[in-house]
Amino acid sequence: xxxxxxxxxxxxxxxxxxxxxVTTTVSANAAAGFSIVKFNLSNLTSTSTLGHxxxxxxxxxxxxxxxxxxxxxxxHYKVGAGSYVRFNDTAASSSSAGWMNSSTAPTDQVFTQxxxxxxxxxxxxxxxxxxxxxxxxxxxxxxxxxxxxxxxxCFQYTGFRPRFIWIKSNSHSEQWSLYDAQRLGYNxxxxxxxxxxxxxxxxxxxxxxxxxxxxFNP
Length: 218
Hints:
Blueprint: E1 15-17, E2 24-29, E3 34-40, E4 49-51, E5 60-65, E6 73-76, E7 83-86, E8 94-95, E9 110-112, H1 115-118, E10 124-130, E11 156-157, E12 164-167, E13 177-180, E14 190-194, E15 202-204, E16 210-212, E17 215-217
Antiparallel strand pairs: 1-2, 2-3, 3-10, 4-9, 5-6, 5-10, 6-7, 7-8, 11-17, 12-13, 13-14, 14-15, 16-17
């Protein structure tokens, strides 16, 4: 069987971070825009802030309870701090008064998680934080053109040739589509994987994305 793996390098076992109201354990690689944050729900209040170690505001944060069978709640700056999508689900975005304290966007030092949303059980949590890095990693959004056979011209400028792309609809129930330039087939006929599914890869015949030297076109 063939396999594919996508990897980000953090910074070892992690260390104590006191930038926020709640002390976290953080393994951060600021140069690559990636950090892993561990914290415990028992320390949360209704407005708790947690240090992420990136020195740049995260554009995406994926949060998972390590004890309970719970969803992968995901913040994306284009969706907004008061709403989330779920990494394991196809649903459109949802909003909650407790998520990210309703509308508190991450800063270059901290992000917000609340007892209003998660509760205060003695349970460990993990958060994966991603920030933009010029020439390496970018995040954004676009409005697609609906309709069968519609011409879509939604070129997304990244400033570099992307090798890994994932796309999720914010307004509709759609799969988390994942493309890369490593597996066989890209530019029109792409090998596609769905992050929320255990299905094998498929091929989008003549309807896939186009990857360019400075971005991509969905």
